[in-house]
Fold:
Amino acid sequence: MKLLNYLLTGIDNIQNGNGFVISAIGMLIVFLALALISVFIALLPRALKLASIIIPDEASRVASEDEQVVAAISTAMHYHKYVQSSEKV
Amino acid sequence: MDLLISFLGTTGYAHLSIGNVLMIVVGISFISLAIIKHYEPLLLLPIGFGVVVGNIPSIASMPLGVYDQGSVLWYLYFGVKNGIFPPLIFLGIGAMTDFSTMLSNPKLILLGAAAQFGIFLTLMGALAMPFFNINEAAAIGIIGGADGPTSIFLASKLAPHLLGAIAIAAYSYMALVPVIQPPIMRLLTTRKERLIRMKPSRVVSKRERVIFPIAGFLIIALLVPGALSLLGMLFFGNLLKESGVTERLAETGRTALIDIVTILLGFSVGASTQAVRMVEMNGVMINKGFLTVESMLIFGLGALSFAVATASGVLCAKFMNLFLKDKINPLIGAAGVSAVPDSARVVQIVGQEEDPDNFLLMHAMAPNVAGVIGSAVAAGILWSILVK
Structure:
């Protein structure tokens, strides 16, 4: 009987402090916020695929610039070694 | 001779109470756990030493403790009391967090949301007791978020007088993640479920990683402005990291800045746990120190909060499996509590007990970082609703 009274008082306390409402709203908004992020992340790759048609991916552009730099360095090194070997001869 | 006697009367030995001795033992236990057991040493050691420092009795006429205006510790504690340190820690966390695993498997974010159930259930549990009002109950509930800075932030806003107990409880349970979580995880899952292997994550492009902190911040901050200071700093730190053009700033955020703030926060929180602190309220002297019935209840409720959060994450994963073609290993639901990366590590360990070739760590990091966002959102909601 004492336990039941204690339980009922506890429920009253929660109700008086708006505990049920705050918890329900809180949990709902946490789920909503993270669900929105989840949906956004799920759609992001598709949106980027569409966007890449209009604006080319920076990464691929950088890669092509890198390739040019690597080609230039390789040519320079090859030329340098060629000159060195010619001098030895 | 009178001078000597007068000096002896001012020593700590003359004023040391049993409560102080008890708290000094607690502080030394924290230091021992950090050094011997390696339980969250970066946090427990500064807190532990702070507890020892805070429980040396000070002289009434000299400003020494964190509550004595003008003392050195009072200035250090200013950052805790006004919620300045937690957002700075979030900046550092953002600068060291890789959201790729979360971006590669967005459905796992829901596990980070489910684990926040512990916060709200504990809020109701605390409110059911005759000791706490709604603000105090909310500040206690946030311990279930398993996020020390978030707990401190919300406690400083809603129940500053409980800050010490809440911070110590939050960090203690974060350190005890490897002890608290595994039994609950095993209890709620079958062996077959623990053996589930998950598909490898897809590669996430740099564009996605750069866009996410900006878009993620906008989505959440517009919905819950109360989470702005915590999540603003988290996403800002992450943008510094992912942009690739501010590596120096990101490096400072994830090393020097977070280290300095952790030292100041840990030490001053520890120093705020004076065993007995009599404060006059409405003409009556009330003990607002650490050794009170309320503090003990906060520790009990904190453990409950942590256990419920772990269970909620695991049960949510099991529920999601009812609808998913590619099953989730329900163990990773336990990582929805935001103790990064400890709870993800626990998932890996428990999973490998069943199958040593099953690597769950990267999968568990997704709900883990989602949990950081989730607990900050929960704190923002509670602050928004309860602020006066």
The first strand of chain B starts at residue 278 and ends at 281. Strands of chain B lie at 278-281, 284-287.
